[in-house]
Amino acid sequence: MQNTVNQKSCPFCKGINSCMVNDKNPCWCNEVDIPAELNAMVPTSLQRKSCICLACINLFNENPAYFKENH
């Protein structure tokens, strides 16, 4: 499976991640704790290239087992 890099989409749900890393202001993700276990699930080809969206972070935090089964 080939993963294409789209910095504006979440590597899990493919939705818009609202990343502002290239903006003048700090990105929203600087204020959110992203579990290391979730970061480790990002495909290697997308790590540090495509940000996880807040919805996926919240879903993982609410139910990690469900998230793992579905992503």
Topology (elements, then pairings):
Elements: H1 36-41, H2 54-62, H3 64-70
Explained architecture:
- The protein contains three helices and no strands.
- The chain is an all-alpha fold and 71 residues long.
- α2 (54-62) crosses α3 (64-70).
- The longest helix is centred in the C-terminal third of the chain and has 9 residues, at 54-62.
Structural key phrases:
about 70 residues
Uncertain segments are none
| CA gyration radius, whole angstroms | 12 Å
What best-fitting shape do the alpha-carbon axes yield? Answer: globular
How large is the count of helical segments? 3
Helix and strand sequence: HHH
Structural class: mainly alpha
Report the end-to-end length measured between terminal Cα atoms.
14 Å
Mean pLDDT: 86
How helical, in percent, are the residues?
25-40%
Give the total of beta strands: 0
Largest sheet: none
Quote the beta fraction.
Answer: under 5%
What oligomeric state best describes the polypeptide chains here? single chain
